[in-house]
Write a structure and sequence with these properties.
Blueprint (H helix, E strand, L loop, with lengths): L1 H26 L4 H16 L8 E8 L5 E5 L11 H13 L4 E8 L8 E2 L3 E5 L8 H12 L4 E2 L3 E4 L11 H13 L3 E2 L3 E3 L7 E10 H9 L4 H15 L8 H8 L24 H12 L2 H8 L24 E8 L2 E10 L2 E11 L5 H19 L18
Parallel strand pairs: 4-6, 5-7, 6-8, 7-9
Antiparallel strand pairs: 1-2, 1-13, 3-5, 3-10, 11-12, 12-13
């Protein structure tokens, strides 16, 4: 009896120790190098999925804020970006204009008008290449100047910067349009139009605040608005490009100065509809990493992005997975082209920047997106690896569709 009791006691003790050992093993932190290696293998398996046989496939995943490349596949190969080009355009706008920029139009005179409504010198219109501006703006300016009692301009009309996005002449078109609108309201202008600048100590006679850049970015990215994206790129070209050589090389120069390889960039238009646009996964991810270095720039860009299972073009994807609410990304779709690029957020902070590009696949778009979604789920899991129980309870995105 004593021997049997001792054996029973030893059995209980050994069993308890095994349970405790298993708990300690499960609770032990994963070696970050092992976790990264496992992530790379999972992503490599997904990007080599049989459904993508014969397709061009590329990816680049970078850890934030350290900039470590966790995974890459054909990172420097050129791909058709489709609407992920909007991510490049909006990021460029944030960097060039600043996250708190607000488009506006103003009109100045060297001195205040006389009590008889006379302006002794030029009337200067200063614009910021507003992508939301239209022809009615000039009529509104003329109407308001008339209501102030202005009847005569002793000089001419000077353009100090493009007023609307489509103007490539640094303000000359705006000056012509205002000259005509003033005549229509009975305001006489002695001389013609020219280009120039707002004089120091000038007198403000008109101010129109338009859309804030943050709001405009949201309109572009959230539901992938092609028209607004094209106008935004035109606006940037008006302000930062060369009017004598109207191409988009200023975008390449911007990111080249940040140390990124822009040699393969082909930016034909800003919406992503052109198959002639070309972009590499490394460049787009690099731009995302650069934006993430500045908290305010990141906030403005990320706030414009669709979120998995929550809003925008990703509202119906990755629902019920760990990626839901954590993947902030821009989609890109053309015939046989599907892309996804953005950030993985954990507790309000970006932990990964990524780009996935696929083209020339023979499977359905639904299948290609399912593979992307599974990659995003693995990225979110990796980002959450230090939170106990997340991976064990994680539902999968089906690849059998």
């Amino acid at each position: 009896m004593i021997t049997r009791s001792r054996k029973h006691l030893w059995g209980i003790l050994i069993g308890g120790l095994l349970v405790l050992l298993s708990i300690c093993t499960l609770a032990a932190p994963t070696d970050p190098h092992d976790a990264a290696a496992q992530l790379r293998q999972k992503l490599a398996d997904l990007m080599a999925h049989p459904a993508l046989h014969g397709a061009q496939v590329g990816a680049c995943v970078v850890s934030l804020p350290d900039g470590e490349v966790l995974y890459s596949l054909n990172p420097h190969q050129s791909f058709i970006p489709a609407s992920t080009i909007k991510l490049l355009v909006t990021a460029s706008a944030v960097r060039l204009l600043g996250p708190d920029f607000v488009y506006h139009t103003s009109v100045w005179t060297p001195a205040a008008p006389t009590e008889w409504g006379q302006i002794s010198g030029d009337l200067i219109i200063a614009g910021t290449a507003d992508p939301a501006a239209n022809a009615a703006t000039y009529t509104d300016i003329a109407r308001q100047l008339r209501s102030q009692g202005i009847r005569w301009v002793g000089g001419g009309i000077v353009g100090a910067g493009a007023m609307a996005a489509s103007e490539q002449d640094k303000g000359l078109k705006a000056a012509h349009a205002l000259h005509q609108a003033l005549g229509g309201k009975g305001i006489w202008v002695e001389h013609g139009v020219s280009q120039g600048a707002v004089p120091p100590g000038g007198h403000l006679v008109y101010w129109r605040q338009s859309v804030a850049l943050r709001d405009y970015l949201r309109a572009v990215n959230m539901h992938s608005d092609n028209r607004r994206a094209s106008l935004l790129l035109s606006s940037l070209l008006s302000s930062f490009g060369n009017p004598h050589d109207p191409d988009h090389s200023f975008v390449a120069e911007l990111w080249h100065e940040c140390g990124l390889d822009t040699s393969a960039l082909r930016l034909i238009e800003g919406s992503g509809r052109s198959h002639h646009n070309k972009l590499t996964p490394a460049l787009l991810t690099g731009v995302l990493v650069e934006i993430a270095r500045d908290e305010h720039e990141l906030e403005a860009l990320a706030d414009s992005l669709p979120v998995a299972g929550v809003r925008g073009t990703l509202s119906g994807r990755m629902c019920g997975t760990v990626a839901e609410g954590r993947i902030y990304a821009k989609t890109g779709t053309l015939k046989k082209v599907s892309c996804l690029a953005g950030y993985v957020y954990v507790e309000g902070s970006p932990t990964l920047a990524f780009t996935l590009m696929m083209s020339g696949y023979s499977c359905s778009l639904k299948k290609a997106r399912a593979i992307q979604d599974q990659v995003a789920v693995h990225l979110a899991r990796y980002a959450l690896a230090d939170q106990a129980g997340v991976a064990a309870a994680e539902p999968q995105v089906s690849l059998s569709q």
